[in-house]
Amino acid sequence: MPWYVEWLLLYLAVINIIGIIVTIHDKIAAKKNKWRISEKTLFILSALGAGVSVYITMLLIRHKTKHKRFMIGIPVILILELILIGALIRVKYNG
């Protein structure tokens, strides 16, 4: 396995752990009426590769599941990322 694949997998593991922690923190803060994580931050984390963990965590802890913006936006980000990955793989092996 090339070194950059290992680094990419490490990055994805770290960013997804951060996504889980941030989502859970926001849920706890919401319950305690404390300082919250901005919606923009959750979307940015998702766009940076934490979309899977943010989305699954939201569903598991029932956080922001009534917000259409999240229930549609996060999966759209995931789909766009998959399309991008597919395009990059296609270019690599067909180019």
List the helices and strands and how they pair.
Layout: H1 3-32, H2 39-61, H3 68-94
Helix pairs in contact: 1-2, 2-3
Average pLDDT works out at 94
Low-confidence region ranges: none
Give me the secondary-structure category.
mainly alpha
| Percentage of residues in DSSP E strands | under 5%
Q: Can you tell me the overall shape? A: elongated
**Radius of gyration of CA atoms, rounded to a whole number:** 15 Å
How many helices? The count is 3
Q: How many domain modules? A: 1
How does this model look, in words?
- The protein has 95 residues and is mainly α.
- The longest helix has 30 residues, at 3-32.
- Helices cover 84% and strands 0% of the residues.
- It contains three helices and no strands.
- The chain has one domain (3-90).
- It is elongated and about 50 Å long.
Question: What's this, in brief?
Answer:
The chain has 95 residues and is mostly helical. It has helices at 3-32, 39-61, 68-94.
Keywords:
0% strand, mainly alpha, 95 residues
